[in-house]
Amino acid sequence: MEKFIEYVLQFGNLNKQQIDLIKSKSTEIELRKDEFYWEAGKIVRQIGFITDGVIRVYYYDSKGEENTRYFIDENLLILDGPNSQGNYTPSEYLQAITGCKLTVFYKKDWKEISDTIIGWENIVQKINNKQHTEKIERRSILVSQDAATRYNEFIDKFPTLANRVPLSYIASYLGITQSSLSRIRKNIR
Amino acid sequence: MEKFIEYVLQFGNLNKQQIDLIKSKSTEIELRKDEFYWEAGKIVRQIGFITDGVIRVYYYDSKGEENTRYFIDENLLILDGPNSQGNYTPSEYLQAITGCKLTVFYKKDWKEISDTIIGWENIVQKINNKQHTEKIERRSILVSQDAATRYNEFIDKFPTLANRVPLSYIASYLGITQSSLSRIRKNIR
DNA sequence: TTCACTTTTTGCCAAATGGCAAATGGTTTC
DNA sequence: GAAACCATTTGCCATTTGGCAAAAAGTGAA
Questions:
Q1: Could you say which of A172, B133, B182, B186 is the most buried, measured as most Cβ atoms within 10 Å of its Cβ?
Q2: Which residues of the protein are close to the nucleic strand D, CB under 7 angstroms?
């Protein structure tokens, strides 16, 4: 919980009363390895903030191939549809690839926070924009560099992940086959 | 101008008075081919909406190579920093690659619209989120598919562009060399 | 038209990557 | 420990892509 507050305070000020409101509406949950946070086609009922662990976001492309779009790690706010109102049904899967801890807010409570705290929407928007920008920048690297460089970028960004998650996930994120990734790792050794 | 109003109305309702306010604050500008809309390092002073033409977004990577991050075409709202407030200095270049027409709003006027029209920020946020999502999805395709497929996606998305802009821009967007792209086009013919 | 300049295509070869299958290594279950 | 199962590495070869330079095609100015 504290992690979430601390994170939010980077984007705007909150007084004690407001912080208490947020705390009172939050719930801590844990996901076991391989458990899903979202599943494509199922309505999303909560807003989540990852405090520990890593989640993998993937989808199925037009050929039915599974594609890892990105990994999301600590200090990331998982909003849902455009503005977290109404029902949202994602087309992606969000799966915990390590044990994860999240601070979550049910839609109704989130709305109450929005309605009560002036400036809350603005803060959330700032966070959302920052996250989007980072995602696009990371994706850009994945397009313009060769596979070994892409893998190194991945290692820089997720140093603890390289040896903890299936190679196939990483390969799919980098846009190469598992065999190629295995050979790249061999060369680095 | 009408194009902008029409676009905005897809995301929320506005009454005549509100529409008139927006119209009164807008300016139409044109960019000649190759002219810059943004330049890295220069403060952005306006919010723009493209009604005609195509703009290329590029940056220089750590090796000093120019990389085309994406093309933006009609009906795209070019916001600046997280919430279009204060001064924002981009690290990207936005260059018109065809003649372009834009509806623009100066920061001060944009703020007045925000302050006057209740729900405006919400509409803008919806637009922004939609645009971000589309960008990420397009980038995803660029990572997971082979070069010919990527080029076909590009043609689908920007059918009029293929023969109007330098090959090097397209190649850089697709993450391949110009020679490779030339060969891919040869195979398609 | 001719010249100068830029963009695109092509040839050649090296390097990177994919596809497939077998071998190896690790983990879990009984 | 043995067997079954899954993940990773490796070999082999075909295909794709890159790097470089020259040729060809296109463009604009005089």
A1: A172
A2: A 166-168, 178-179, 181-183, 185-186; B 146-148, 175-177, 179-180, 183-184
Give me the residue from A59, A83, A132 closest to B126, CB to CB: A83
SS3 content of chain A, % helix, strand, coil (to 5): 45, 25, 35
Does residue A180 lie within 7 Å of nucleic acid chain C, judged by its CB? yes
Q: What is the pTM of this model?
A: 0.86
Phi-psi region of B27 (alpha: psi -120 to 50; beta: other; left: phi over 0): beta
Chain B nearest-CA residue for A79: B129
In the three-class reduction of DSSP (H, G, I as helix; E, B as strand; rest coil), residue B18 is classed as helix
> Does an H or E element contain B62, and which?
none
Kindly state whether B129 is in contact with chain A, defined as any CB-CB distance less than 8 angstroms: yes
pLDDT tens-place values along chain A, 189 residues long: 789 999 999 999 999 999 999 999 999 999 988 889 988 778 888 899 999 988 999 998 877 888 999 898 888 888 876 555 566 777 889 999 888 999 999 999 999 999 999 989 889 988 988 888 888 888 888 888 999 999 999 999 888 888 889 999 999 999 999 999 999 999 987
| C-alpha of B41 from chain center | 18
Q: Which nucleotide is nearest to B186 (CA to C1')?
A: C9
Chain A neighbors of B130, CB-CB under 8 A: 82
Which residues of chain A are within 8 Å of residue B125 when distances are taken between CB atoms?
82-83, 121, 125
Q: Classify burial at B143, counting beta carbons within 10 Å of its beta carbon; exposed 0-12, middle 13-18, buried 19 or more.
A: buried
